[in-house]
Amino acid sequence: MKAADKAAQQGALKVDENGRRKNAAQRARALMERKSDSMPVVQFVGERQERHVTAEMVDPAPRGGIVEVAQQHYLLRLIVSRQLAQQYAASVLGLLWSYIQPGMRFAVYFFIFGVVLKTHQGTPNFALRLFAGMVFMHFFTETWTKATQSIWNNRALVLKMRVPREVFPIASMLTAAYHTGPQVVILIACCAVVGWHFSFAAVLALLLGFALLLTFATAMALYFSALNVLYKDFQNIVSTITQFLHFLVPMMYSYSVIAALGKDHQAAYQLYMANPLAEAVMLMQRCFWFPTLNNQSQFAKQFPPDLWSRGLIMLAVSCVLLVFSQRFFARVESKFPERL
Amino acid sequence: MAESIVVDHVTKDFTMHYHRTLKQMAVATLRGLPLKEEFQAVNDVSFTVEQGESVGLMGLNGSGKSTLLKLINGVMRPNQGTIRTRGRIAGLIATGAGFHPQMTGRENLYLNGAILGMSENEINGKFDEIVEFAGIGKFLDTPVSHYSSGMYARLGFAIAIHVDADIFLADEVLAVGDRPFKKKCLAKMQEIRTQGTTIFYVSHAAASVRAMCDRVLILESGHLNFDGPCDDGIRYLQYDDDDDDENSLEGMVDEELGADI
In terms of Cα–Cα distance, which of A171, A178, A174 is closest to A99? Predict the structure, then answer.
């Protein structure tokens, strides 16, 4: 019975296929007739030259990844400058907004945590420590939120032009860096005013902290920009997380509070410290804030004893994350045109 | 002559997702409706194009022409098979260039040029020529979202044709242009044809294809059903059904008339 059904079905399909073909033939003819004079005819004139192309045969869509982005620096520069121009287009204060917003946030944190909750007691140069953390957290959250939306926002280009698509999240990161740069200058000026003592440990902390922040930010930018194409929920998830991310790193309160927590709740402590941003912020404080103190030995408890090894481990983890997210991006990228 | 484009057993599948929210998916699952469906836009297509060849791509709407051009251009990757191309590729895919709507014509010109592989000096050198060809004049510093569809297409074509590419793809881009501009574009395409550029030209107008191309590829629902000289291809498209002889004769007459206009 079932076999008979199937045979009948197949027969029906076959007939359908023929009909379809005939139909297509008719449509093609009609289309040709309609369009016959839609394009003017321009005859070929002149001699045909031979063109010698020296390039090799290559895949038109190479999987160059972020390496290819780095090679096309002119394109990257154009996209970054466009994003900068666009971000505050049609606003009176323009670029000032990228200082007003962090400035206000700094004032509020300083007031609530420093003045009201009195966390600055026992912490000299509290404002400097808070600022050192905030500048780099601002860079990260800016990168993350903007990069997550970047592919979606540039879909007009992604759909029609062949570009290494990693260029959009990377450009978002450079835009964030452009906004954060002057804040770093302010931070350095503040350090100079307060009195910063040179030490190799501080420079090493800067290098390690910066490398950690950069690899982690790139990894997150790539991963979430691709994910957001598949599921637009992720841009909401990211903006929700960034709202409380500032509270999850030791900048408004000191590390010693977290260390005290670790005595009772080891798991919570480990979870807190598993955040690469916590290490990055502490390394930055180690570089900018710690060398401004007069009696440094007294404040050694403000950093975990294994800050350096944790920092290095987190750098290694971030590198692995970066490789993983680049692979994820390359895999998902071929689905972009149908999902945008 | 050297090979310019080699397409080897290329297949491109699309997955259509019918439902995007969790609620819709749950409802669809309960009703037993499919959540997604795959279909093949390009099915096992193979061909080789030599440098300097001019190829017309014909077929009905939805037969996979644009997808094939996107694969050659590198916007998409095939699911199966390989594509190899030689040299710089420029072109216009699916009626219009990839412009950023909020950017001005000038910014888009630079961005597009950079994407197509031009250096800053190269773009600066050709800037005036491109603007003049596009004829957008004072609208150069207006966001392209305010452009008319004709202006949009003109600017896109002007950039792509001035790239000095080794492979030029033109996908029904000129459909929105007016007649004088179409004529200008086709003359320019004939000019780069003399320079030995490989050309891919998508059009439904048989006479125009005959004048522009050495060879015709015909796609039918994703299959490459014809690959050969122009006249044979156009005859193939007429389908020479015996019952419609008169009709196709009329078509030929129309086409010839079209040639004179």
Answer: A178
User: Rounded CA gap, B156 and A69, in Å?
Assistant: 24
Does residue B167 come out as left (phi exceeding 0), alpha (psi in the -120 to 50 range) or beta? beta
Which residues on chain B are in Cβ contact (under 8 Å) with A32?
204, 206, 234, 237-238, 251, 255
Residue B54 β-bridge partners: B199
What's residue B239's pLDDT? 52
Three-state DSSP at B130 gives: helix
Check whether A48 has a pLDDT greater than 50.
yes
As for the ipTM of the complex, it is 0.83
From B137's Cα to the closest Cα of chain A, the distance in A is 22
d(CA A257, CA B238): 82
Q: Which domain holds residue B118?
A: 3-11+40-233
More confident: A205 or B154: A205
CA torsion sign for A114, A119, A125, A129 is: negative
CATH number at residue B179: 3.40.50.300
The whole-number pLDDT of residue A88 equals: 75
Question: How much of chain B is helix, strand and coil, in % rounded to 5?
Answer: 45, 25, 25
> Mean pLDDT of all residues in chain A?
86
In a domain, B191, yes or no: yes
Question: Could you tell me the residue ranges of all domains in chain A?
Answer: 66-74+92-339
**Cα distance between residue A151 and residue A168, in whole Å:** 6
Q: How do residues A274-302 score in pLDDT, each as one tens digit?
A: 999 999 999 999 999 999 988 888 888 88
CB contact under 8 A, B239 and A25: yes
Q: Which residues contact A3 (CB under 8 A, 6 or more apart)?
A: none
B198-255: per-residue pLDDT in tens? 999 888 888 888 888 989 999 988 899 889 998 888 888 775 444 444 444 444 444 4
- Domain contains B26: no
Distance between CA A246 and CA A109 in Å, rounded? 10
pLDDT of amino acid A177: 93
Q: How far apart are the first and last CA of chain B?
A: 36
Residues of B in contact with A34 (CB under 8 A): 204
Q: In Å, how far is B97's CA from the nearest CA of chain A?
A: 7
The chain B residue lying nearest A21, using CA atoms, is B220
pLDDT at position B253: 45
Q: What region, left, alpha or beta, does residue B220 occupy, with left being phi > 0 and alpha being psi -120 to 50 degrees? A: beta
Q: Is residue B240 part of a domain?
A: no
Total domains in chain B come to 1
